[in-house]
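Ligand-bound model needed. S-adenosylmethionine.
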Amino acid sequence: MKLGKDYIMHSELALPYLETPEDHIIKTLETLQTKFGLKKDSKQKLIDLGSGDGRVVIYAGLNYGILSIGYEINPDLVKEALEHKELLKKEKKYKNKYLRKIKIKRGDLFTLNLKNYDFIYIYSLPTMQSFLHHVFKTAKSEAIFISYKYPLDQFETYLKLEYKIKHQTDNQENYSYFYRMMEKKL
Ligand SMILES: C[S@@+](CC[C@H](N)C(=O)[O-])C[C@H]1O[C@@H](n2cnc3c(N)ncnc32)[C@H](O)[C@@H]1O
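Prediction:
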């Protein structure tokens, strides 16, 4: 699908680029492993909705060997993420089999179907959450949503808050919130 300039600009205003700090990503993935069944080198899949410079999916793919897909609307950030991946290819310690698990795609998160994903990462703003229902509702039962910094307060009818972790950086406190998609009623 072709994304118009106005649409991209509007998306970036509604949800600007802000990055999850590296140490918060590490702790979040550790929590997924210890509490939510993330298994290294398994067939599980993770997606980052609005993946910025790709840091979450690059970390997940390299360190956990699961298929990790980032969707990002901003072409410059997609380029940056792909360049980062290319650089990693030159470092011998990163095996190609792990790099192949990292996919960065240019696209609009509002058009996605999440049915194939076990772990769904999002760093969004409370102001845009009400527009996410049609996307979130496509996730399978038991899928785990991870929301960085802001709780997903408007989704209680189908997302159950199971856990949260506190990140402390200098004087700042942030949380990652872990939700489980409830059983779907037929
Ligand atoms: C707060 S940043 C989070 C970046 C990354 N996930 C992280 O945690 O480091 C949100 C990202 O979503 C992207 N974005 C905004 N609207 C989008 C849309 N409609 N589709 C895909 N990405 C979008 C922005 O360009 C930005 O990079």
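The first helix runs from residue 5 to 14.
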